[in-house]
Amino acid sequence: MRPENAKESTKGTTKESAKAHAPTADLPPLELLRSFEAAARTLSFTLAAGELHLTQSAVSRQIQQLEASVGTLLFERGHRSLSLTESGGVLQRAVVDSLERLRDATARLRAAPALRQVAITSTPGFASFWLIPRLARFTAAHPDVDVRVSATLDVLDLERSRIDVAVRFVATQNGIGPALFDESVEPLCSPQLIRSGAHPLRVPADLVHHTLLTMETPGSMAPTVDWEPWQALMGLPELRMKNTLRFTLYTDAVNAAVAGQGVVIGRLPLLDAFLRDGRLVAPFGQSASTRRGHYIETSRRAAGNPDAQDFVRWLRAEADADANAARG
């Protein structure tokens, strides 16, 4: 007996679980309730059919299906009259109340202002050093626009990720949109390293006494790969330094340089603000082009988003202002 009871118990649990996961399973089809509401309000299958653009016989059949579904008559049908039964009155009040709630909710949603948003993706370095410090200027001019910044080393698919604008850091020949600015590099460090007592930084040969601050690189690449354009400019066959600190993110390597922990290759103009306010200095005063740059790419969704178009114009205006200031 116990195994059979166990089976019955399991079946009962399964049925209850199915009901719990099917919230509309006990409701009659919603199109039947729509026909019922019209017939109950007009007390006429013919008038209800006219409202719903159905035939009178179609409405009549739907009411019969609804009565079969709830297991009771909803209308008293006379020779030329129609009236609600007590059960019909109960259902009418419930349906009318539900429809009113739906109308109120729909009206509130339609009255709510549409969310205005611009989604952008870039590298963490661009976001931290260039975009975020000046982003308040965009939000001040566009206070009703939310900005979503996705700072990542991953190259996100704009359409799948629902992103409007990307600032891509790529080789100049691979730029697929308007250029913001090209990149150049040179060693940067804290002012205290230049004044370092035993080993001040005056000429490139002095680097041998200092710590290299760099990002993690794939196994086949040297930790000084980002220094190579500058090495070539300076005629240095190799770069020798005392030791190395590696970081996952370029932002961390820069912060270590500000803290006086070593020398980092500075990507310009990303770090121009650090040079202007003295957090970092360029001990040798010569930079080299990397033939890379930051380029704007927009998604198809951005074409229908005026705020995204404003954001692109703002990016380019900021970059042009920086370039003009540097030339002046």
Quick synopsis:
With 328 residues, this protein is of the alpha/beta class.
Structure description:
- By secondary structure, the protein is an alpha/beta fold.
- It has 3 domains: about 1-110, Arc Repressor Mutant, subunit A (Orthogonal Bundle), CATH 1.10.10.10; about 115-180 and about 290-325, Periplasmic binding protein-like II (D-Maltodextrin-Binding Protein, domain 2); about 185-290, D-Maltodextrin-Binding Protein, domain 2, CATH 3.40.190.10.
- Helices cover about 45% and strands about 20% of the residues.
- It is built from 11 helices and 10 strands.
- The chain has helices at about 1-20, 30-40, 45-50, 55-70, 85-110, 125-140, 190-195, 230-235, 250-260, 270-275, 305-325; strands at about 75, 80-85, 115-120, 145-150, 165-170, 180-190, 210-215, 245, 265-270, 290-300.
- The protein has an 8-stranded mixed beta sheet, sandwiched between helices. A two-stranded antiparallel ribbon has the order 1-2.
- The longest helix has 26 residues, at about 85-110.
- The chain is rod-shaped, with a radius of gyration of 35 Å.
- It starts with a helix and ends with a helix.
